[in-house]
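for the recovery benchmark. tokens below, seq after
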């Protein structure tokens, strides 16, 4: 049968800019802000910075990991609260900590295929305003009462209520299939790979120092909109050093293998981020200069339930696939943005790529991917210092890396983000 459409060559996708509100440790200054409040402020900040008021974009894609059931389509409701044309379509995605980057991939792919010309990708999370659900017993009782056709039937349904039904169901930071928290999973992987406390604390200290330096040189001036009186990430401790970090008690893991502390783990955080993506033509028409190009992306998943792979190791698998498809080696990058879920996550990923057995047996490679130039890693700080509002981390990283590439006058950057559920989302940007 003859094709009904003529295949089109993919278009280049420009990253025009980004915006985020400063990230705040949970139960702090944003404790009373909802996901919709924070995402609206963030998207509207982007609208203001790039003159998008009244603009009908191709679409806005965003998401939250911790989402209230009332947030049926959080992103669409957000758009309706901004100065974008209300005729801008919008929808939610959820890919755990990879949500922000996954949203960017969806928007970028539609732009590349010519289905849309410009869009915003974002993410938001509040650990303060976490959704609390009622117990299954109470839910079933209320549903039965709601189905009742008479007051008598309703009263009969409600007699099924038991005191235990009133215990709320509070979201936990655990994997449903193992019952272990992200931190407990990571502690197992860190012990398996022999990641030292010292190496983790060094990485954490560097994250704070790099983020502080980036703020001081004005790097975030056009990447951030102050919110509720906050103008810098509240988790940032410019004076954080290895000496102080080494005194903190382990919080995940057991015995001598317990190396993970509050200092080398991300804190629970509130915040939002968004990035503006467009075709080259749209950028030119709107007199906007691309910071960088969104080149390619890959996702991977590992079987952490039945197999012995670490929960947060999927990026170690996604990156080699991405490199192979693009004819690149791990050393062909000027900057590396590896999400610091925990310092140990970054260190195990790097160690896995250096390990001949892992690369041969698990990745099917003839030789290890090798090591990276550590001075090129997370050069403007990462999640250990900035904090990690799960779905907002991808947007923070895409915008920061694009700006870094533009500032450097060119180059190539690799993004690697681990996600709950044993998944990983990675991408390549170029300027
Ligand atoms: C979800 C995905 O899809 C993938 C992922 O990204 S996985 C990652 C997901 N994120 C998580 O799992 C979050 C994990 N974090 C947590 O659960 C908690 O933050 C935690 C258990 C690690 C710590 O919680 P906490 O005990 O409330 O920490 P907090 O009180 O802030 O800090 C403890 C101490 O360390 C100190 N401290 C923390 N960071 C420090 C630093 N950088 N420098 C110096 N001291 C520091 C604090 O000052 C505090 O000291 P005091 O007790 O003297 O006040």
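predicted aa per position
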């Amino acid at each position: 049968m003859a094709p009904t459409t003529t295949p089109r060559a993919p278009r280049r996708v420009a990253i025009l800019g980004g915006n985020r509100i400063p990230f705040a440790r949970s139960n702090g200054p944003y404790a009373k802000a909802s996901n919709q409040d924070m995402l609206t402020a963030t998207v509207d900040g982007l609208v203001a910075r790039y003159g998008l008021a009244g603009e009908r974009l191709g679409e806005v894609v965003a998401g939250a990991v911790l989402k209230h059931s009332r947030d049926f389509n959080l992103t669409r409701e957000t758009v309706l609260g901004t100065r974008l044309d209300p005729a801008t379509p919008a929808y939610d995605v959820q890919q755990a900590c990879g949500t922000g980057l996954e949203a960017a991939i969806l928007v970028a792919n539609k732009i590349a295929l010519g289905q849309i010309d410009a869009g915003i990708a974002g993410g938001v999370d509040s650990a303060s305003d976490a959704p609390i659900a009622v117990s299954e017993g109470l839910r079933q009782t209320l549903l039965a009462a709601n189905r009742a056709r008479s007051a008598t039937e309703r009263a009969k349904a409600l007699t099924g209520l038991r005191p235990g039904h009133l215990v709320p169901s509070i979201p936990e930071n655990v994997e449903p299939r193992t019952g272990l928290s992200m931190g407990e999973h990571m502690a197992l992987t860190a012990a398996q790979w022999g990641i030292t406390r010292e190496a983790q604390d060094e990485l954490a200290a560097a994250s704070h120092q790099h983020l502080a330096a980036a703020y001081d040189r004005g790097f975030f001036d056009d990447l951030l909109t102050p919110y509720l009186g906050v103008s810098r990430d509240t988790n940032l401790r410019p004076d954080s050093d290895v000496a102080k970090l080494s005194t903190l008690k382990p919080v995940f893991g057991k015995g001598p293998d317990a190396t993970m502390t509050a200092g080398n783990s991300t804190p629970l955080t509130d915040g939002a981020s968004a990035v503006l993506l467009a075709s080259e033509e749209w950028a030119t028409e709107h007199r906007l200069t691309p910071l960088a190009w969104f080149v390619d992306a890959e996702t991977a998943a590992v079987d952490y339930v039945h197999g012995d792979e670490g929960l947060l190791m999927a990026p170690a698998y996604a990156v080699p696939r991405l490199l192979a498809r693009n004819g690149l080696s791990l050393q062909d990058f000027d900057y590396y943005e590896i999400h610091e879920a925990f310092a140990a996550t970054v260190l195990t990923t790097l160690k896995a790529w250096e390990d001949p057995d892992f690369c041969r047996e698990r990745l099917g490679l003839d030789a290890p991917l090798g090591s990276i130039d550590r001075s090129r890693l997370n050069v403007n700080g990462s999640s250990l210092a900035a904090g990690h509002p799960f779905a907002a981390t991808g947007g923070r990283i895409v915008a920061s890396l694009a700006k870094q590439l533009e500032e450097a006058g060119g180059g190539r950057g690799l993004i690697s983000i681990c996600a709950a559920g044993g998944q990983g989302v990675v991408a390549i940007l170029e300027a």
